[in-house]
Amino acid sequence: MENVMIITEENFEAEVQNSTGLALLDFWAPWCGPCQMMLPLLSQFADEMKGTVKVGKVNVDENPSIAWTFRVMSIPTLILLKDGKAVEMVVGVQQVESLKNLVAKHSA
Asked: Is the dihedral of CA 28, 82, 14, 95 positive or negative?
């Protein structure tokens, strides 16, 4: 998980909202079984995409205002942002290839 940032209400603006390029946020909670299944996949994706997309995790219990901002209703929810603006949202466990396809679609 060394290439996955922990996004909090304190660093959200600097690390996500005011950043340029692509960022993928994983909205999760420790008690969520599917979220735990997503952990190694997200870590692998972050390792493989290092330098291409910023990857962050948002604990919805500890950072409810960020989850509310994006209208996150189910977890895991992954949101791809481009230059600080949400461009796509997917809900549920995602495989590494589908995450790569999501990024490729918005890389142009």
From this structure: positive
Residues labelled as active-site residues: 32, 35
Q: How many residues does the chain have?
A: 108
Q: For residue 98, what are the domain limits? A: 4-105
CATH code for the domain in which residue 52 is found: 3.40.30.10
Closest C-alpha to 28, from 16, 40, 15, 44: 40
Rounded CA separation 14/82 (Å): 14
The overall longest dimension of the chain from CA atoms, in Å, is: 37
Structural domain count, the chain: 1
Q: What is the 3-state secondary structure (H, E, C) of 14-79?
A: HHHHCCCCEEEEEEECCCCHHHHHHHHHHHHHHHHCCCCEEEEEEECCCCHHHHHHCCCCCCCEEE
Is the pTM higher than 0.90?
yes
Percentage of residues of the chain with pLDDT beyond 70 = 99
